[in-house]
Amino acid sequence: MTPSQAEKTPPAATADTAAFNLVRELAAALSAGTVSLPSYPQVAIRLQKMLADEDSDADRLVRVLGAEPVLAARVTTMAGAAALNPSGRKITDLRTAIVLLGFDALRTTAAAFAMVQIRQAGEYKNIEKPMAALWRESVSRAAMAYVVARATGKSRPDTAMLAGILSGIGKLYLLTQMSRHPELFADEAAFHSLVRDWHASIAQALLESWQMAPEIVAAVRDWPTVDTDPRNAPDLADVLAAADLLISHGEDPELLQGLLADSRPMQRLGLKAGCASLLADSAAELESLRKALSN
Q: Which residue, among 97, 219, 245, 209, has the nearest Cα to 162 in the 3D structure?
């Protein structure tokens, strides 16, 4: 093909080729079990695997975290968040912070640290805006999932917060591919189609490689489609879906109230009414969690 012919090639053809190539790569990586998130810090992976080990204790975790000052600082900041530290006491000791947080909140902190590192990687400067938007969504969903889980008693709040921070991990992986396939991601519809079709498989592969609990894996994999599930028993995926609905429409009480009747996650969780009060009563805690996760 000559340069003049290439110039006349419709953009859609280029995007279609890129989509085909990326889907082929994704399928091969999933089949081989080699899916990994580029630039994900090794210390975060090591910590996630340690937290999956029942023999891990605070002293071992202090040694690992002590070697990474930025992550250690995030742990102490997280432990000081109002929602996790009702007494309001100042937390400066790493061991105390670890004991206070517990393993799931530590996993959340490690994941948040890792995602910030990915955002700051030089190779992703060209997609800084969509990565920042995804990060804000994940932080808000994590904080809201904590509040929803605590209010309904259907899941452990710390576990819900962890699932929330990881809820966009499949989309994050696809965003990291933008540097290799920029022509594809210029087509917003094509990108959303990829997220819809591949988020679940990618999220499951990544989280299983990090030895996350099956409950977390299933929730992150299933929450975007859980509203079409006719089952009756609520689970963690419902908490994430409910949190997302509250984030999206919480500032419009009338619209939110109208959506509640049609939301299966809300129905299963028993959140058909009173959401405006829940949001108002939890405003300070939501802000403290968002701040702790973002700093």
A: 219
